[in-house]
UniProtKB/TrEMBL annotation:
It comes from the Bacteria. It comes from Fictibacillus fluitans. This is Pyridoxamine 5'-phosphate oxidase family protein. Residues 8-146 form the General stress protein FMN-binding split barrel domain. Signal peptide: none annotated. It holds the Pfam family Pyrid_ox_like.
Length: 161
């Protein structure tokens, strides 16, 4: 990654590092659908990883249309747009697997039905909730019809590799 991209990835990494659950949104034939996914304990480097099974709707949806969004909520809000791909690498599955998955997935990492979803992040938008003054200034400017950009409470970062 270039320096700017590395800096942006570090910001995303900091925002998601302690969040256990993300909401993965895929595109179905009827529209958008979101579902909770367990966040992998791996440092964000521009890619997100999740486990799933081949016999799920999200697996089929990603094969049809890899455009996805992942949302995280904690003290801040983060929305990551990217492209998903299915990864069946046994070594990567073993690397990311934890004992909790034995119970969650009711199987083991070497089950041929278990696959990884790798999301190549393209952009992230985040809202930091820690700045009360910034939020008040933003809302005041919005309500009074002023340009609220100077008091924006969110920021978008491009993560293209």
């Amino acid at each position: 990654m270039a320096n700017m991209e590395q800096k942006e990835a570090e910001k995303v990494r900091e925002l998601i590092k302690d969040i256990d659950t993300a909401m993965l949104t895929t595109i179905t034939e009827e529209g958008l659908v979101s579902r909770p996914m367990k966040t992998q304990e791996v440092e964000f480097d521009g890619d997100l990883w999740f486990f799933t099974k081949k016999d799920t709707n999200k697996y089929d949806e990603i094969l049809r249309n890899p455009e996805v969004n992942v949302a995280y909520v904690d003290d801040s809000y983060l929305s990551i747009r990217g492209r998903a791909e299915i990864v069946e690498d046994l070594h990567k599955k073993k690397e990311l697997w934890g004992i909790a998955y034995d119970k969650i997935m009711q199987t083991t990492y070497d089950d041929p039905n278990i696959v990884l979803i790798k999301i190549n992040a393209e952009a992230a938008e985040y809202w930091e909730t820690g700045s009360f003054t910034k939020r008040v200034a933003f809302m005041f400017k919005r309500v009074t019809g002023q340009d609220a950009e100077s008091a924006a409470v969110n920021e978008t970062v491009e993560l293209d590799k």
